[in-house]
Structure formats: structure tokens, C-alpha cells
Amino acid sequence: MIEQKFPLRDEDIPRQWYNLAADLPTPLEPLRTPTGELVTPDMMAAIFPMNLIEQDASQERWIDIPEPLLELLASYRPAPLKRAVRLEKALDTPAKIYYKDESTSPAGSHKPNTALAQAWYNKQFGTKRLTTETGAGQWGSALCYSCAQVGLECKVFMVRISYDQKPYRKILMETWGGTCIPSPSTETEAGRRFLEQYPDTPGSLGMAISEAVEAAVSDTSGETKYSLGSVLNHVMLHQTIIGQEAKKQLAMAGVKKPDIVIGCAGGGSNFAGLAFPFVNDKIHGDEITIIPVEPQSCPSLTKAPFTYDFGDTAGMTPLLPMHTLGHNFVAPPLHAGGLRYHGMAPLVSQAVVEGLLEPMSIPQLECYAAAVQWARTEGPICAPETSHAIAATIREAKKAREEGREKVILFGYSGHGLLDLAGYDAYFKGRLEDYEIPEEEFRKALLSSLEGLPKAEGKKTGKWG
Ligand SMILES: Cc1ncc(COP(=O)(O)O)c(C=O)c1O
């Protein structure tokens, strides 16, 4: 019998996070204000607690995970690594397909890995409540769960289109004691402005971030902080336990190194969590193809320039050096709501600039076809975001078949789709379509977003292409 599962014990959970910033060949460009000045930690202090601000700026390669936080993480970790033998057979591929299953966390995705960390550090700092945004609802529910674990209040601004498409996510958040409101809302100045300008907007992650940041900074007591589920360095950092565990599990499977590592990328944290420990190996000589996958209709890595842009639509955050479609870009209402973000994590973006990663974009219908093939072979129902990684895996497994090569593919199974069935229903009823941004729309969003902002240099060593 072929071995399909590679279980670790609690004591195998990594004791440290891996910080790619310490190993990137070209250092990350700093955060800036719209007039080009450097952003100081004090400027960030209205939004985030200082312990996380320090972590975000750290250049240490390894950062210890505090023991009480490890104990919280151990309630659902280590996460399983499995081999998809039935999909391999259906594809008639010589490739071996392994997947790291993050869907087994309480909220059903990788998001609690950083939600627990952020909630815990905020609690240590003396924060009483957190605000945040959520796209598909995975992040919002992960943060509500985590706040319940450490004793914080939580308020979530959920992108309107996902709020309507995924009502059960709101109930999850409420069950964990949080509140969830559709964004744009009338609760914030930014929200009221968006509604006035675009009364029928489906909302976007950029808009919801503006609302959540405003809700945090407008509490002058300092007891409310904002929490971001992706994009920032400390979020990437917290997720790196995924890839570190996967390495130990691949070793149990007798795999020295994977040939291909694949993860879907919205703001970049799921991808980074799995991939960064392997990017480290690549920097140090291993040959690995590392692929972040994004939707064809929201192609920040594959189509957009690398430059400074705001993380949100209203321009309340500092400027981040990243691949960006422009903060005014509103992606079409595809079901993979967690991938509808205009930008990409600076660390992931810089790794792309360096040529360390090979980004791919895939249309929605191919992703749903992959999700259905996955369900009918392996069994589980994946999140629409995760289907992008599965679709890329299928492409690569077919390529291995054509080349007759026994490649090892590792992909990130970032979440289950048991609360995303409306998307599957729409797919079966033929109501979904592919969408490529018209060139004019793409340029318009970029021009209107980036006018007057400083440019990032996008330097690279040229070593990886
Ligand atoms: C299941 C799942 N996978 C992936 C993502 C993408 O986010 P990120 O790129 O930050 O991992 C999300 C975001 O909501 C998600 O819910």
C-alpha cells in the first residue's frame, strides 16, 4: 500500500518562525509616506501594538515562538501532509503530489496561524479589541476564534459581495463572539464616502481595510488596534510554520526536496507560509520551481508593476513596495474572495522581482473544474481560493506526464470550502464566467492610483533571472 499520511507529533511543531527578510538577496525597500519619507515605528503605533511592529521590521532569520502561543497552536497543529494518490492516478501522471492540509484548523484555513499570534501579542500589549477586514470570511472568522481564545473583542468589516455570498461565515464569527458588518458600511467616514461614490459597489478588500483601520485609530483610548490577515512581513513570518512542518513530513515520505512548490496567493500569506522555507533552500542552491497562483481577473504578480502603493483604497495605510494593480482597482466579484486584493505582500513581490518565484494566473472556470476533479478523486471540498493551487498542480502534473518525469509536487491546501458551496452551485448552473481585465480598465486603475506617489526601485541581483 502506498503511504498517504505523514503525521507529526506536538513536539514537532516548529519552535521558531523563519524570516525571509534576513536572506533576501536584495533587502526590502522601506515603507514610505505619500511624500516619500520613511515610516517610523511611532507612526504605526496608532494601528498596531509595538511588539508586532518590531517583529515586522526584524532582520533576524529565526524568531522564537513564545511557549504559551505554541500551546494555542498545538490545539490543531501539526497540520497533516498527505499524498494525493487518487488524483495522481486519475491524471495518469508519474508525478508524486503531496499537499499540506491547513483546512483542519478550527476556522478551516491557514489563517489562525497568524490570527492566534496577532491576538496573543495584542493581549500581551494590553489591547482590548481588534478590528479587521475580511474577504471570503476565512480571515474574519479566524480572528474571531483567536480573540475568543485570548479574551479580546473583535469587529470585522466583511466585503459586501462575500457577506451576501457566504452568510454562514458571519454566523461563525458571531458564534466566536465577534461582530461582522458588510463593507462599505455607514459606520465609518471612509465607508460613507465609498457608498456615496459607488452606491452599488460589491466592496473590496481595499475598502474594508480602510474602514477597519479607521475604526481602530478613531478610538482615542488606544485600546483598539487593527489586525491584518496578510501582506505584512509579520503575517508572512507567522505562517512559515506551514513550510517547516511540510519539510519534516516530506523527509518522512523519503523526499529530499520537492521539484515544485505551489500555493495560491491573495495577499500572499498562505503561499509565503508554505514556500518561504523552500525559497531559503533555493537561495542556498536547491533547484525548486516555486509558483504563487492568482486569479486571471486579479493578476497583481503576473500583470501589474512593482512600485509603491497604499494597502487600502482610501489611502490610510503607509505605502508598501509591492506588485499592485492600483489601490483603486476593484476586482470582479469572483468567488475566491480571498484572492481579490489589488496588491501583494512586499516579501513575495521582492522574491518575484529577484526571479526566485514563477507566478501563474489561472481563469476561474479552470479552477472550479480542478476543484470538482479534486472532490471526485480525493474527496474533500476545497475553498475557491485553494482551487487555484489545485488547478496549477494539475497543469504541472500533466506537464510531468508529457515529459515523462517523476517530479515531486507539493501544494498548499489552504482551506476547505464547506461554507463556499454557493460558488460550486453557480459553477454547476453555468453562471460563472472567466474575466480578463480590459487593458483600458487596467491602465485607468493604475494611473489614478499611482499618480504622484513615489516609485519603488525594484532592484534585483539578476541571479535568478
Ligand atoms: C482558503 C484561503 N486560501 C488563501 C487565501 C489567500 O490569502 P493569502 O494570500 O493571504 O493567504 C485566503 C484568503 O482569505 C483563503 O481564505
Can you walk me through this structure?
By secondary structure, the protein is of the alpha/beta class. It has a domain at 64-108 and 233-450: Rossmann fold, CATH 3.40.50.1100. It is 41% helix and 14% strand. It has helices at 41-44, 50-57, 67-73, 85-91, 112-125, 138-150, 160-165, 167-175, 189-197, 205-217, 233-239, 241-252, 269-283, 300-303, 346-353, 364-377, 384-403, 421-428, 439-450; strands at residues 16-18, 62-64, 81-83, 96-101, 129-134, 153-159, 179-183, 224-226, 260-264, 289-295, 306-310, 319-323, 360-362, 408-413. The strands form 4 sheets. It has a 6-stranded mixed β-sheet with strand order 3-4-14-9-10-13, sandwiched between helices. The longest helix has 20 residues, at 384-403. The structure holds pyridoxal-5'-phosphate. Pyridoxal-5'-phosphate (PLP) binds next to α6, α13 and α17.
Short description:
This protein is α/β, with parallel strands linked by helices and 465 residues long. The chain has helices spanning 41-44, 50-57, 67-73, 85-91, 112-125, 138-150, 160-165, 167-175, 189-197, 205-217, 233-239, 241-252, 269-283, 300-303, 346-353, 364-377, 384-403, 421-428, 439-450; strands at residues 16-18, 62-64, 81-83, 96-101, 129-134, 153-159, 179-183, 224-226, 260-264, 289-295, 306-310, 319-323, 360-362, 408-413. Strands 3-4-14-9-10-13 form a 6-stranded mixed beta sheet, sandwiched between helices. Strands 7-6-5-8 form a 4-stranded parallel beta sheet, sandwiched between helices.
